[in-house]
Specification:
Strand 4, helix 5 and strand 5 form a beta-alpha-beta unit. The C terminus is likely disordered. This protein has 222 residues and is α/β, with parallel strands linked by helices. The relative contact order is 0.16. Strands 3-2-1-4-5 form a 5-stranded mixed β-sheet, with helices on both faces. The protein starts with a helix and ends in a 19-residue tail after the last helix. The chain is built from 8 helices and 5 strands, in the order αβββαααβαβααα.
Length: 222
């Protein structure tokens, strides 16, 4: 009910009616996998430097229908973040600002649910700019692959079970090939692959095997 009321209020608060399509019914069985690379991890002071989004229709990942953009941030690009995503200041010097990229990205996403790994971070980074443009935050539903993975792996685990939700661990456990880390397109693609596999596991009622304490070899003695 809370989400329903928020959508009603946001629809009324929308600054520009040209974006009313964000409130349309989502195309059946379609979602968008999205990833942002940023100048840092502070959602209030850091900015997006690249963003990629890939449509998923059913169990098909539509890489031919992808959105990619490199963005010139207003925030300082710290050396630590450059080491992670390998995007240099010179790479973004002539790129567009996020406010001119955002209309194209929103048109690509439409009303589809957003799939991501720790999707709330990406949504917060986008929403800073969406709020300025539209007066509201993104109304799209969110699906976090780490939640889907937890459900298939740990939802029935006994108390005290060690939980590992690292991106690389999820990929390995699902037998998915690792792609270039901290690249917006490759991370969005890996996330899309996780989503499709986990969605299939849930549909079939399959849970992922956990290593039990008695399955772990004992240390040598003597």
């Amino acid at each position: 009910m809370h989400r329903f009321l928020k959508r009603r209020l946001d629809r009324m608060r929308l600054k520009d009616n040209a974006y009313s399509y964000l409130f349309d019914p989502s195309p059946e069985d379609e979602v968008v996998s999205i990833d942002c690379e940023t100048t840092g991890l502070n959602t209030k002071t850091d900015d997006i430097v690249s963003v990629a989004a890939i449509k998923i229709r059913g169990n098909r990942i539509l890489t031919s229908e992808a959105f990619q953009a490199t963005v010139k941030p207003k925030a300082h690009m710290a050396a630590d973040s450059i080491k992670i995503h390998q995007i240099l200041r010179s790479d973004v010097a002539q790129e567009r600002r996020i406010e001119t990229v955002l209309p194209d990205l929103l048109k690509f996403i439409g009303s589809r649910p957003l799939v991501g790994y720790w999707i709330d971070f990406d949504a917060k980074m986008l929403n800073k700019n969406v709020q300025q443009l539209l007066g509201i935050t993104l109304p799209n539903a969110r699906i976090d692959v780490s939640d889907l993975y937890y459900d298939r792996k740990y939802s029935k685990a006994p108390p005290g079970t060690k939980v590992d939700l690292r991106f690389a661990e999820i990929l390995a456990d699902l037998n998915l090939p690792p792609l270039k880390a901290h690249n917006a397109f490759d991370d969005a693609l890996s996330t899309a692959q996780m989503y499709v596999v986990l969605k299939d596991l849930k549909a079939r009622g399959v849970f992922l095997k956990r290593v039990r304490s008695w399955d772990t070899p004992l240390p040598p003695v003597g």
